[in-house]
Amino acid sequence: MKALAYHGPGKLKLEEVPKPVIKKSTDAIVKITRTTICGTDLHIKKGDLPAVLDGRILGHEGVGIVEQVGESVSNFHIGDHVLISCITSCGKCGNCKKGMYSHCENGGGWILGNLIDGTQAEYVRIPFADNSLYSVPAGADEEALVMLSDIFPTGFECGVLNGKVNPGDTVAIIGAGPIGMAALLTAHFYSPAEIIMVDIDENRLEIAKKMGATTVLSNRDGKAAEKIMELTHTRGVDVVIEAIGTPQSFDICQSIVAAGGHIANIGVHGKPVQLNLDKLWSQNITLTTRLVDTVTTPMLLKTVMSGKILPKQLITHHFALDEIMQAYDTFSDAMKERALKVIITNN
Ligand code: ZN
Ligand code: ZN
Predict the structure, then answer these.
(1) Ligand 1: distance of its center to the CA of 166 in Å?
(2) 183 within 8 A of 243, measured Cβ to Cβ
(3) Residue 12: which residues within 8 A CB-CB, separation 6 or more?
(4) Cβ 118 vs Cβ 56: under 8 Å
(5) Sheet of 170-174, strand order
(6) How far is the CA of 282 from the centre of ligand 1 (A)?
(7) 264 near 238, Cβ under 8 Å?
(8) What is the mean predicted confidence (pLDDT) over 52-69?
(9) Which ligand is nearest to the CA of 38?
(10) Cα–Cα distance for residue pair 19/6, rounded to 1 Å
């Protein structure tokens, strides 16, 4: 089968590899129909994640058709239309029982396209299929659902839920990439009064406005924090969602959080940040971190089916699996290409 494999920093190749086979009775093999590329895949490409070994097939998002199931799989059958969660989980260990699928103690967590072969291929092996796949409802739009593998649960759980967004709140989201946009769209569930979106990409800010941001701010001049303090009459914001993962973006968060506010980190940080406790120790704030658990996927599926959220708005480009190298180029150069999410189709 065809698959996109990582061969060390900077080296990706679409190549012919053996089709995956059932290794454990809890596995399923899924034929991928739609997948996408995540910002995390670009980090892997750069060599930022040394755990990803030479030859690894990338990708942790996708929708497909069940091709084969192990004998212990009971929730899914051959031919079922399924959504693949970016988090694999046994559903039985202590952490899974707490709903912390991201830290499954039986070898689950974020393993797809990381520690085991992923979804940027014709077929993928899904361990613990019963708990790691979701049925696609009849009439669902496949492309929209690809956004539920990772970015919507991530924006919602790590940003909106951890940030405790409340009606009437002022929320700031630092980073208008796909994850920041997913946080923006799902923050609306709680009717905040203001959502301020910060980025350096004017095109993304324009889209954020269409998606319901009340204010958009360019940080090209590095003055977003000052502008937000002015806008809020030096009070700051109730919730600040960090959706980039750099020391600079974290700095904005701690400069603008109001007394009693919350900083919800989503960004993948590659470097340490400075925590200004000399200013924050008395401010009654909370700071949260989280790897998405995807426990809200069934709820998010319902909101998509009912039209409450429209994840398809984030899709800007389409490619066939054969064109995946081109898809990587487009996604890597997102600002120039005006790209948010790219859909890769395997027919
Ligand atoms: Zn991802
Ligand atoms: Zn588990």
Answers:
(1) 26
(2) yes
(3) 4, 5, 6, 45, 58, 325, 328
(4) yes
(5) 215-218, 194-199, 170-174, 237-242, 257-265, 286-288
(6) 35
(7) no
(8) 98
(9) 1
(10) 17
CA distance linking residue 133 with residue 84, whole number of Å: 5
Q: Which helix (H) or strand (E) holds 134?
A: strand 133-135
Q: Answer yes or no: are the C-beta atoms of 183 and 208 closer than 8 Å.
A: no
How many Å lie between the centroid of ligand 2 and the Cα of residue 93?
A: 4
Domains of the chain: 2-150+293-345 (3.90.180.10), 153-288 (3.40.50.720)
pLDDT, one tens digit per residue, over 29-43 is: 999 999 999 999 999
Mean predicted confidence (pLDDT) in 211-220: 97
pLDDT tens digits, residue range 306-322?
999 999 999 999 999 99
Which amino acid, one-letter code, is at 149?
S
Q: Tokens in use for 344?
A: 């890769």
Kindly give the distance from the C-alpha atom of residue 62 to the centroid of ligand 2, in angstroms, as a whole number: 21
| Cα separation values, 117 from 12, 111, 125, 150, Å | 14, 8, 8, 17
